[in-house]
Amino acid sequence: MKSSFVFLCISATLAVLTITSAAPGRGNANATIPANRTQNGTVTCAGLNDQKKALEGFIAAFVAILFFGSNFVPVKKIDTGDGVFFQWIMCMGIWLCALVTQLVLSFHPNNNNNLNQTVPVPFEPEALLGGFLWATGNMFCVPVIKCLGLGLGMLIWGTVNCLGGWASGRFGLFGVEASLPGNEAENFSGVALCLLGVIMFVFVKSEGKKTKSNETDDERAHLLFSKKIQAETESTTLKDMSKASDDLDDSWVDRLNPKVKKIVGTVMAIAAGLLFGVSFDPVTHLEQSNCHNPQNGLDYAFSHFCGILLTSTSYLIIYCFIKKNKPQVIGEAILPGLLVGVMWAIAYGAWFIANANLTQTISYPIVATAPGLVSALWGIFIFAEIRGVKNLVFFSFACALIIGGSVLTALSKS
Description:
By secondary structure, this protein is mainly alpha-helical. The chain has one domain. It has 15 helices and no strands. α5 packs antiparallel against α13, α6 packs antiparallel against α15 (389-411) and α13 runs antiparallel to α15. The protein starts with a helix and ends with a helix.
């Protein structure tokens, strides 16, 4: 466990260095030349600059896919309670990573003639809105999983997220200027294949590992819970025990009948996907609205992540009032939760760079769907959750569809 923690910390540090070094020039509106080729067909500096930007964008997309697909591994075996306190800890880790990035960028030289000149990173209130949208969508995730299960819940919000983010960049929704791909047929085909790959993942079933006594993880968890209750009865009265049982009762979701639960879960999953899908739009609007604004998405990351922390803290305070100041606080989830937030922030920061270099029309379908492959690989090779010929066949089809769709989407840029 300690070696895994050290490995993840080292990976996070390397990713931060990669992201900050790959960030495009800040505040440099005149960095490119309009034409890519001369009359005799030789590539100009502008063409080389475009190729460099594309390479940086695809590297950033790869970093985002890797960390999005791995960021929940540290809490795989840890109880996170009802999820509210855990998501606040996660958002705290996100904000701490953003603070470090803000400090690094504040001393990063501007890309102009004076290489020693530094440019202050602006704080944009409009970018707070993107953080609010994401944090609100994130609050829906735990109830959605309780209502629909992990597979169907992620399928719905992942599909809506992919479509929402891609459509806002492609068609210019919510104040964002439309970004047309070089080849529309390849772009539409790539998005369609990525979505089909996501749908295939719903047929890949996760199986819990067997314990030495041939108990499933759920049976073992039930046994541990029963032992805990038995220990508590030695020091509490029947009245106190009844009250403790009420406190340990599941959330409001479990009191819904199955039909209502499915409707509520579906509506919340669609809402979460829409909120995730448009969470980049405020930053993209800032980049496009004024050529003098910084064109590097990382310059807006701190403002965006401040919106996430403020929103998450507000929801935590409301939750504490509802629970009468008795929230479910899981101590062992604090450090792993912070690490989850740092890894998520690295992935999101890389996504900022991918959007800036490739446009949302290209990067969004790739980054929104491919992390499922990484998560599944963890499930196959590390946690042994995905087993059996049928599961592996569905997984292979999903991989082929998503990889093929990502390649088509990437090719549609030129």
